[in-house]
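Quick one, tokens below. Sequence please?
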């Protein structure tokens, strides 16, 4: 049920989708006796879409997420394993085209491959199945990631491919089951910086101790907090990405799936 709601209600509530929906409703109401309300909804829809698209709103929402965890310090020691979260490859398009098609979070795979070369004895877990509400066994992200990592020089014998997870909670639970980390082992978690708080919270809840290795930043830092977007699509994308994370954090926290609303660095 939780997964189904995230793929239906959660998607509908993303700012871009929600505001377009309000605009469509407003346009429909223009032809009824509620035309006055329809005009107000249309005006509100256009104005709020402009704010989400051009204003610093997306940056303001992303910044606390991306700043939650610092860069990983290699001086802290050698990792025993590396978990790379999916989200870099569009499995459906890859299956349709017969070639690997990347999304915007390709930094996850690139950084994971770089770490694999830096630490040749570390085990590599790639976690990513299909996030579709209705899916079959035909298109799984991990299947395409295997060939990509192999082409980047990572020996197949080091790769552990987890191909059944549908969301971040299952990433954490299934990765722990397949990696079977031993007490005292050190594992890195590679995912987008804005996605790291939710990911770390879920891995902690699953009992899989990981050290955050954030990548794929969408903001440049404090200087971006008041910067306006040149293209509305960029601003809308950042606003939607941030809203998805904040809604996810709130939902997971309210349902007891994570212990903190905004998980942060481990307390010593």
């Amino acid at each position: 049920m939780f997964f189904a709601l995230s793929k239906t209600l959660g998607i509908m509530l993303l700012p871009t989708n929600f505001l377009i929906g309000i605009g469509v409703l407003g346009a429909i109401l223009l032809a009824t006796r509620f035309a006055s309300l329809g005009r107000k909804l249309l005006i509100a829809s256009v104005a709020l879409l402009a704010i989400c698209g051009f204003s610093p709103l997306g940056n303001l929402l992303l910044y606390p997420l991306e700043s939650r965890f610092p860069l990983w310090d290699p001086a802290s020691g050698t990792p025993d394993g590396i978990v790379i979260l999916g989200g870099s490859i569009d499995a459906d398009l890859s299956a349709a085209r017969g070639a690997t098609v990347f999304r915007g979070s390709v930094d996850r795979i690139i950084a994971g491959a770089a770490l694999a070369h830096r630490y040749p004895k570390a085990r590599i877990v790639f976690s990513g199945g299909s996030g579709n509400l209705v899916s079959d066994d035909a298109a799984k992200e991990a299947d395409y990631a295997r060939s990509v990592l192999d082409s980047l020089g990572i020996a197949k014998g080091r790769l552990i491919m987890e191909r059944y997870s549908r969301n971040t909670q299952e990433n954490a639970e299934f990765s722990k089951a397949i990696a079977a980390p031993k007490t005292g082992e050190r594992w890195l978690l590679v995912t987008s910086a804005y996605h790291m708080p939710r990911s770390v919270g879920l891995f902690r809840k699953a009992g899989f101790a990981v050290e955050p290795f954030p990548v794929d930043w969408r903001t440049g830092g404090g200087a971006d907090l008041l910067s306006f977007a040149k293209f509305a699509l960029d601003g809308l994308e950042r606003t939607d990405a941030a809203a998805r994370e904040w809604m996810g954090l709130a939902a997971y926290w309210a349902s007891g799936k994570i212990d903190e609303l905004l998980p942060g660095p481990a307390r010593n």
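The longest strand covers residues 187-192. The CA atoms of residues 172 and 203 lie 5 Å apart.
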